[in-house]
Amino acid sequence: MKVTVVGAGAVGATCADNIARKEIVDELVIVDIKEGFAEGKALDLTQTTSLLGFDTTITGSTNDYSKTAGTHVAVITSGIPRKPGMSREDLIGTNAGIVKEVATHILKYSPEAILIIISNPMDTMTYLALKSLGLPKSRVIGMGGALDSSRFKTYLSLASGASQNDIQATVIGGHGDTTMIPLTRLASCQGVPFSKILSPDQLEKVASDTMVGGATLTKLLGTSAWYAPGAAGAAVVESIIRDERKVIPCSVYLDGEYGESDICIGVPVVLGKNGIEKIVELELNETEKAKFKASADAVRNMNKVLHDMKVL
Ligand SMILES: NC(=O)c1ccc[n+]([C@@H]2O[C@H](COP(=O)([O-])OP(=O)(O)OC[C@H]3O[C@@H](n4cnc5c(N)ncnc54)[C@H](O)[C@@H]3O)[C@@H](O)[C@H]2O)c1
Ligand SMILES: O=C(O)C[C@H](O)C(=O)O
């Protein structure tokens, strides 16, 4: 199996590192537009092979996509990250052109590839890749919910003292500071609902901390996060490559599910060898449904910018 990671920056290199350590592919290719950068990251990672004991061939390429031929899964992380004070949506002007160009190059050499979109604003970039390339909806997957759900688990754990590994918690909706929906009603610790563990005020604080999780890190780091995003990207790749059929919230094209159509937005999906094997429809209450609709309206408004920019 072969995986390509486009963008050898903070998220791309961390994702590649995690994929290599998991030993889930024979070949890993990293591509970047910056001369020598992907080759350098690939060589550096290769030199961890004997230290970490994995056996994956890692190569780098400066924009030569012929090296990516035969890719099963391509992870797109190329583009600019936000700086403190910015929103993810502020990145659309630069990243839309990059994502469209990169996805086109990947598909030229690997027409059957499954695309994992990480570049922000991720829901809109996922929609752009799917629509501009006319790909089947099972093969274009936005990574956001996996990361947001892991942050939700971190904040639930910090508030309650429970182990993150005992927690089940899901974030749906857009991958934006105001659009994501941490499902506090459904969060549980080994079968015990968090509504029985934390007070309503504590749960509300956990939800709002989760929603601004990316912005909090951007303020601390001066740029956006990479360890958890890279690990979340690798977890999505792993479920596909190993055909694990894990349920992971991802941004996917909806065609009537959750009452929405013609939009990519975060919902739980089964990830297996064909990409999206199934969309899981959670039973939302009226409040959650209203939040999901508001989130979808905001994402749809952002998608309109793609037409204004004439990239779609
Ligand atoms: N979806 C998520 O959950 C999530 C999480 C973290 C970051 N992100 C997003 O991922 C993106 C990357 O973040 P980062 O911190 O790795 O940024 P970074 O600046 O460290 O890396 C981006 C890399 O993309 C490369 N690049 C730019 N244009 C390219 C092109 N046309 N072809 C190939 N490579 C190109 C750059 O040279 C750079 O090395 C950002 O848009 C960020 O907002 C998304
Ligand atoms: O916060 C960002 O801009 C990057 C990413 O979407 C994240 O959630 O870490």
Can you walk me through this structure?
With 312 residues, the protein is of the alpha/beta class. The protein folds into two domains: 143 residues, Rossmann fold (3-Layer(aba) Sandwich); 164 residues, L-2-Hydroxyisocaproate Dehydrogenase, Chain A, domain 2. It contains ten helices and 14 strands. α6 runs antiparallel to α7. The longest helix has 23 residues. It starts with a strand and ends with a helix. The mean pLDDT is 98. The structure holds nicotinamide-adenine-dinucleotide (NAD) and (2S)-2-hydroxybutanedioic acid.
How is this structure best summarized?
The protein is 42% helix and 21% strand. It has 312 residues and is of the alpha/beta class. (2S)-2-hydroxybutanedioic acid is lined by residues 81-82, 88, 120, 147, 175, 214, 217-218, 224-225, 229.
List keywords for this structure.
Lactate/malate_DH_C; 2 domains; 312 residues; L-2-Hydroxyisocaproate Dehydrogenase, Chain A, domain 2; NAD; Rossmann fold; 6-stranded parallel beta sheet; binds nicotinamide-adenine-dinucleotide; globular; 14 strands; 42% helix; Lactate_DH/Glyco_Ohase_4_C
Question: Largest sheet, if any?
Answer: 6 strands, parallel
Q: What is the fourth-level CATH superfamily of the largest domain?
A: Lactate dehydrogenase/glycoside hydrolase, family 4, C-terminal
The rounded Rg comes to 19 Å
CATH topology of the largest domain: L-2-Hydroxyisocaproate Dehydrogenase, Chain A, domain 2
Low-confidence parts: none
With strands numbered from the N-terminus, the spatial order across the biggest sheet is: 3-2-1-4-5-6
CATH C-level category of the largest domain: Alpha Beta
Number of helices: 10
H/E series: EHEHHEEHEHEHEEEEEHHHEEEH
- Estimate what percentage of residues fall within beta strands: 15-25%
